[in-house]
Amino acid sequence: MAQSAPIAARAAAPAAQASVSAAPVVMPAMPVIPLDQAQLLLAAQKATQRGDPQPALDALRQLKGTLLEPWVAYWAIKPTLSEATQADFDAFARAYPHTYVLDRLRNDWLLELGKREDWTDFNRVYPHFIMRDDPQVQCYDLQSQFVTQHADVTAQVFKLWMDQRYGGVGCNSAASALLQDGAMPREMLWQRMRRFYEDGRAKQARDLLAPFLPTGSWRILAQTDSDAVRYLLDVVRRGPSAAIANADQRQYLVLALLSMARQDPGQAARLLQENFSALPSRDRAQIWGRIGLSAALGLQPEAARWYARMGQADPAFVPSTTVLEWQVRAALRAQDWPLVRSATRTLIDQGDKDLSWRYWHARALEKLGHPIEGRALLAEVANPWDFYGQLATDALGMKVSLPASLPPAPLSVVAQQAARPGLQRSLALFSIDLRNEAVREWNFSLRGLDNQQMQGAAELACQQQLWDRCINTSERVTGGVDIAQRYAMPYREAIGKASAAEDVNEAFLYGLIRQESRFIANIKSWVGASGLMQLMPATAKLVARKIGLTDYSHDQIADVGVNVQLGSAYLGGLLQQFDGSEALAAAGYNAGPGRPLRWRNMGLPDQPLLPGAIFAENIPIPETRDYVKRVLANATVYAAILSGKPQSLKARLGDVGSPDAMLASNQGNRP
Fold it and tell me: What residues does 611 pair with on adjacent strands?
């Protein structure tokens, strides 16, 4: 494997440190799992996934005292939790204290105890729970407080319940308990019902909440979702005033309009404006917000105008975060800077820490004649590492320059991390390709590390060529950046060769691979994409045929050289198709080339060409939107590393629009 210059230089540094040390540092041996043990472990893990504990029980007897015994014990008990007792859990806790799998089992067991409503044992286990990152367990804890202590937890349960798109087993249980007792007001039930409808989860809302409504509600709710048009036209025919005057009927009417807004925003807008303008202002504002959201997701030109109707209906109405975020995006497409300013201000005031809203708020301030305030906010956002930090740097009239890298972690610190049992178990799991389990064990083991220890753990991962752990662990270090870790550059020979052969910018290629696979050569996604560039089998076969790779076979797809050759050729074709736009090509690589063909026309008729940043922010698929931002930000950093010169993300993004608009723009920019 070819090493990058930064990594190669780093390899020599610890040796130099050791040579002048009075007591040379000895690295602990890396774990090696014998073949017979690996076969037992893999069989146990696979069987557990299908609910069969027996292979793990059999393996446990043979693997007593080995490094991965705790995992085998976990695989043995996990499928049986529905029948387990507190004594079973306590025995596991005594046998495997201070391990990741114990806390993982605590999470699973707390969910089971909550389901059983066994609050005595739940309250014994919960104080020892370390991760506490499962909102369903948090909701069960609140339900336990309500049942056992008569605590007032309604506001906390409601917030968690509203934050979970699907509600979730624990939050639905806690909310049901409060509703059953009368501790949660009917108004909160209707608010959650509306959120379910906004999110397209009407059937779940019916099944969960209809029992708390008057008899016959389930049938009416079904009609408001599956046949919203007929329901609304029936209300119009009978006269809307009676429905609006009745508290429950008004709620059904709003739900039907929310369903219609999701399915056909144009028709919902007409009905709301022409037939239901007598609804309370807050109801109308919420419906206009959902109409605007649907239009924004569909990149419709009316989106910003419909969003404006939300504020006109009730200036004090505060919509959901999703509705607000898409209001910003629709306003950006329309270049409606007052709407951008007001929506981003609301997001910031709500405590949203996303740099994107601060960046766009700053740009709106500049556009609206407040340059001093705008530049001050841009200065807070600017940094060389992420998408909006780089854009803020550009907006301040500077280019992206990389600061000096942190010095390498001392070899003694790397050795200290290599000796930790959790990281040893993680390395063992990686060695037998149990990647999901290995990543969880690794991340749990990073708790409580200081910056130098975190950097040492990242260096350990780099040395073991676990590039995803190398990069992701290094990203947790604060107070500086170890550039050789965070922007690792393995496979220089293969990537450089492919870049030159396919005329694809090497920094762009590195930026894309960093996001696709984190340089893990043998990784395979759940949909079947493989290798560094995450190629689908059909795509790899098609590209191989196109470039004349006649001896290609599917078993070569994870080979580094072949994978990068095929992926670079495919990416090069996308760049040609999209007039050299890296933003469109990255979107096409992630979402397929058909979608960006539609998305590139998202500009309004009088503004067909949009800045690349506005295009990226308006990509309707969240995964692709995040992907494009990360790939282009990565590429900007790699370009600075490879060239040694300052870079501009704005220039790399360019403008995006229809082929004719982009051609006209390019011709206009020629000297």
Answer: 655
Phi, psi of 400 (to 5 degrees): -75, 115
For residue 313, give the nearest of 343, 285, 289 by alpha carbon. Answer: 285
Strand partners, 604: 607
Let me know how many helices (H) and strands (E) the chain has, helices first: 40, 2
> Is 172 within a domain?
no
C-alpha dihedral sign at 658, 659, 661, 662 = positive
Write down which residue in 255, 284, 319 finishes a domain: 319
Is there a domain that residue 101 lies in? no
Q: What is the rounded distance in angstroms from the CA atom of residue 269 to the CA atom of residue 300?
A: 13
Q: What are phi and psi of 655, to 5 degrees?
A: -105, 155
Using CA atoms, how far apart are residues 551 and 546, in angstroms rounded to an integer? 12
Q: Report which of 132, 109, 135 is spatially closest to residue 121, judged by C-alpha positions.
A: 109
CA distances from 401 to 14, 194, 356, 384, 638 (A): 27, 48, 20, 7, 11
What CATH number is given to the structural domain containing 633? 1.10.530.10
3-state secondary structure of 406: coil
Please provide residue 656's backbone torsions phi and psi, each rounded to the nearest 5 degrees.
Answer: -130, 135
598 within domain boundaries: yes
Report which of 493, 430, 514 is spatially closest to residue 464, judged by C-alpha positions.
Answer: 430
With contact defined as beta carbons under 8 Å apart, do 7 and 484 qualify? yes
Element spanning 304, H or E: helix 303-313
Q: Residue 310 domain-assigned?
A: yes
Written as one letter, the residue type at 512 is L
> Which residue's entry shows tokens 């040379």?
24
Model pLDDT for residues 585-623, shown as the tens digit of each residue: 999 999 999 999 999 999 878 788 999 999 999 999 999
**Domain end among 264, 299, 319:** 319
The whole-model pTM stands at: 0.92
DSSP 113: H
Q: How many independent structural domains does the chain possess?
A: 2
Gap between the Cα atoms of 618 and 634, Å rounded: 20
Q: Give residue 267's domain range.
A: 214-319
Residues of the chain with pLDDT under 50: 1-9, 11-21, 670-671
Give the three-state DSSP class for 579: coil
Q: What angle do CA 488, 387, 558 make, to 5 degrees?
A: 40
State pLDDT tens for residues 92-126.
Answer: 999 999 999 999 999 999 999 999 999 999 999 99
